Amino acid sequence: MRTYTYTRIFFCTVLLSIMQACSSIFGLPSDPEKSTMGETTPSTTELKNLPLPKEKIVIGVYKFRDQTGQYKPSENGNNWSTAVPQGTTTILIKALEDSRWFIPIERENIANLLNERQIIRSTRQEYNKDADKNTQSLPPLLYAGILLEGGVISYDSNIMTGGLGARYFGIGASTQYRQDRITIYLRAVSTLNGEILKTVYTSKTILSTSVNGSFFRYIDTERLLEAEVGLTQNEPVQLAVTEAIEKAVKSLIVEGVRDKIWGKAAENTTDYQTLINEYNKEQDQNNGRAIGNRFPQNYRQKFAVFGNVEAQKVKDDYVNAKMNIGGKLGFKYFLNPNFNVEVNGSYFTLENENIIKRNYFGPEVNLEYLLLPKYRLTPYIYGGIGAMYSKYTPQYKGQFGGGLEYMIDHNVSLRASAQYDLGFKDDWEGLVNGKRKDQALRFALGINFYLGNK
Question: pLDDT per residue over 137-179, tens digit each?
């Protein structure tokens, strides 16, 4: 019994060692890390690479704060930690310094500065009573020609969530993601007359991902092997706020140059024309941006022709229905980006093995609805009426279906769909039996050709 216990302890120790080694392989932290310099963002590099002004602009920031008042979401009751960092004024001042366009002056804690200057004066007067008065005076404070106002005005949680997972014979894996979004508004105010010179608006998504894997299996009687591995990664909110503020500062600089509000600092806008052109191009692209940093476009044109390869299977009064291959050709006309009218003709075979087999030609008219017409991948649904012609009496039916369409080019798309045909009568094969009308199920793979230019 003691040997058995020692054996179990030994195997547990070995298993823990393997798990520790695996944690390093998967990039999981296992040792403390020393302090490092703060990370930089892509926008930091853009700020530092801006062309320099003719002269720097003295600028003041009294308050640039979190205006959302939002707390971190919690699944276990109240959480009184704020969702947004409270040092956004400091982040903004750092961004102004990195741009090399501005001379930021202390205004957030101006009372501390004035108090310290008063202490200096008092100390000099105390220990230099007989000195010349001119030696006791302090130089005047810089004053700002422009004030920056604004703040973090929105923190939206769970604007996009999703996941994917699968499990087979005790082996499984899953992944989940969540996107939040933070929004910044920044405005420049003239201290001369209080005019708001420029307002800019930027946003940044915050991504959280989770990947998990598990193994669960009985390897012997009363012996179970179970293993799990997982990794969760959350984008730091502070870095997201920093990047959004830096982007706002860059936008303020470029729009100020373009609209000539910086005066002598950028008198000759031709020196900054490349920068302005790049910014204008980015702004044009942003006009079509949707939530999730997606850029939908009008891929689909007014007209389209298509061809499908179909597999059909009848559901009628006989048994042993057999799957057969057929085809469909058609034409679409778009009433608007979402709706189109479709006219098609198909050739198909309905067969009950060793009982009956009939070939049909079937014209159809459908009304189709695309859920996401401006995206490459969109689901769609449709419905309509049709007919089935053969050497026997014509049959009439209704149909509905749906599927997915993916644009591989501006004029070409691939489609996968399923369609359900419902007969108005119960005599497709010439037999009436029971109350259920004859039906058919179709699966199709096809290609669409959109006519015209984007």
Answer: 788 888 888 999 999 988 888 888 888 888 877 788 888 888 8
Task: Please tell me the total count of domains within the chain.
Answer: 2
pLDDT band at 317 (very low <50, low <70, confident <90, very high): low
Q: Which of 275, 289, 393, 374 is nearest to 334 (CA)?
A: 374
149 and 56 in one domain? yes
Residues 6+ away with beta carbon under 8 Å from 187? 148, 149, 150, 196, 197, 198, 199, 200
3-state secondary structure the chain: CHHHHHHHHHHHHHHHHHHHHHHHHCCCCCCCCCCCCCCCCHHHHHHHCCCCCCCCEEEECCCCEECCCCECCCCCCCCCCECCCCCHHHHHHHHHHHHCCEEEECCCCHHHHHHHHHHHHHHHHHHCCCCCHHHHCCCCCCCCCEEEEEEEEEEEEEEEEEEEEEEECCEEEEEEEEEEEEEEEEEEEECCCCCEEEEEEEEEEEEEEEEEEEEEEEEECCEEEEEEEEEEEECCHHHHHHHHHHHHHHHHHHHHHHCCCCHHHHCCHHHHHHHHHHHHHHHHHHCCCECCCECCCCCCCCEEEEEEEEEEEEECCCCCEECEEEEEEEEEEECCCCEEEEEEEEEEEEEECCCEEEEEEEEEEEEEEECCCCCCEEEEEEEEEEEEECCCCCEEEEEEEEEEEEECCCCEEEEEEEEEEEECCCCCCCCCCCCCCCEEEEEEEEEEEEECCC
Longest dimension (CA), the chain: 125
What is the rounded CA–CA span in Å between residue 446 and residue 375?
A: 18
Domain co-membership, 319 together with 413? yes
Q: Please give the model's pTM, rounded to 2 decimal places.
A: 0.67
Let me know if residue 38 belongs to a domain.
no
| Distance between CA atoms of residues 26 and 144, nearest Å | 52
CATH no. for residue 268?
A: 3.40.50.10610
Structural domain harbouring 183: 43-69+84-113+142-283
Which tens digits make up the pLDDT trace of 50-64? Answer: 888 888 989 999 988
Q: Does 170 share its domain with 316?
A: no
Q: Are residues 278 and 308 in the same domain?
A: no
